[in-house]
Design goal:
single chain; about 675 residues; nine-stranded mixed β-sheet; four-stranded antiparallel β-sheet; 21 strands; about 45% helix
Amino acid sequence: MNTNKHTELVNHAWSVADLLRGDYKQSDYGKVILPFTVLRRLECVLEPTRDKVLETVERFQGQDIDIDHFLRKASGHRFYNTSRYTLGAIANDPAHAATYLNKYIAGFSQNAQEVLEKYDFRQHINRLDGANLLYQVVGRFADLDVRPEIVTNHQMGYIFEDLIRKFAEQSNETAGEHFTPREVIELMVNLLIAPDDDVLSLPAVARRVLDPACGTGGMLSAAYEHITKLNPDASVEMHGQELNPESWAICRSDLMIKDQDPDNIKFGNSFSNDGHLREKFDYLLSNPPFGVEWKKVKDEVENDLKTLGENSRFWPALPRINDGSLLFLQHMLSKMKPVSEDGSGGSRVAIVFNGSPLFTGAAESGESKIRQWIIENDWLEGIVALPDQLFYNTGISTYFWILTNRKSKDYQGKVVLLDAREYWQKMRKSLGDKRKYIASDQIAEITRLYADALEVAQNEEHPLHGKVKIFRNDDFGYRRITVERPLKLRFELTEETLAALAVAKPIQKLDNTEEFIAALRPLIGKVWKKKSEAWLEMKDAVVAAGQLWPTGAPFNKALRDAVGVRDPEGEVQKIKGAPEPDTELRDYENVPLDEDIDAYLEREVLPHVPDAWIDHDKTKIGYEIPVTRHFYVYQPPRPLAEIDAELRALEAEIQDLLSEVTE
């Protein structure tokens, strides 16, 4: 099907909006157009076996048996329709359109009816009938030619995506919440599955694929097509879960048409209601929503981790509440097949993230612990940096994470970083935030580059050497050390320090607060280098005034806080004989895991602050993956002479233009 035919079909379906105008809000057009498009597609798919299904119904009529199995066999699909009605016939009888259409829908198998129910279809039938529009809408869709021999399942997916995009534009929603650009999916599937191409070509291959945020099912379809293209006899089970009812319905209908079990597509939230509990899969891939908070399922997720511990889907930690991206990855990793002793089994995982999961979270934060757990288990195979402005709903930079629990020997203990940010073409027309796309030849080159990553990284003469870097797992880990410096104080009594002392709680609690402060007032202007000298002179002044000198830690702390002044040349304060750290001078350093922190202190810190030390009790382990930093190439600023020459040339050009105007 060429582009013109595709556009013609999309425009034909969306032309129903002209009929709906006035009776429906623009934002509601899609609630009619999408389910009718699904309905028409189902009708076209079932048309060749329609008579055979009706014959089967007649053959078993009056018999008290469940004939579901026989009807599916007759239809050649996992769904069927036992009604004699068609959309064309219904459109030709306006007076009974609603009655006949409801009977037609009731003739579908239960799994097909469930798809239409997610659209509240019967409610819209009544509404359209009340506006005397139903027969016209039905007639318009009866003329929509989406027969499988004209429109393949893959092409039908594009039609649904275009309709959803139009719906999103009308209703101010984000189209990208429902699907991922096809070229991004193709690249992702290549990186996920291509390493197994040889194995997948063998006879009797069976694979299970899961997308826990499947949208309209684009990723599942692409994985299915990749595997069956390699091996048409391969058995591929597609599984998914989706929260949006319209997207769920489209994905489910797509599976039915592909003779997959539609019950494999679960409806609901993957975190709070895992539709694939205790199931394992060969391939897992997803494009979860970026930066979406998970507050709604907080109790369920936290209870899962607390109750099940290491067996929880969300082990070992939870990310911050305002971004659930890493929860999707943890959920997927929990569904990897174990690797057996002979090396068989195992799974591969691919997921799209923005930059946040790479580095957000300090050492020993939830995010850092998740990264540490993944890397220490040697599951992270590679990360691919993608161009920005690839997605419909965001222009930010995105990344593929590729993970597996069955790394080949060459990759064990290593992580591939691949810079694909320059692999893009400019779109003729922007679609939302999507202004770039990855061309087919670029997808092929990135796929080859990822497959040959080790060789390319080792060969400095390779033209793409700068695009690939290989790191050891430990290279992403660091120790967060706390560098302390001693608190140094001088002591002075001024009007300000005396006023601060007067309002301190320990002083306020004295029976003779006013007399105590009055006794110290003659010392205003005095400065002491040592605490002992200051305390002695102030004590003598208070005692000389006939007052008692208070004791106790709270009093001494309040007094020091009031009269102590930070001074680089001041006296080092001590606690139990050890220097007291100055919280204002406290600093933190990230030291690579493979480096001795005392050697680091001696080399990097002590030459500048000789009195510094490390508080080892505060040292934390952290993990981050600073992809862009590793590919940063310093660009020296242009020479000043070159900039000056360019400015002079521009000035001369402006003068010439002005002279032409004034002549």
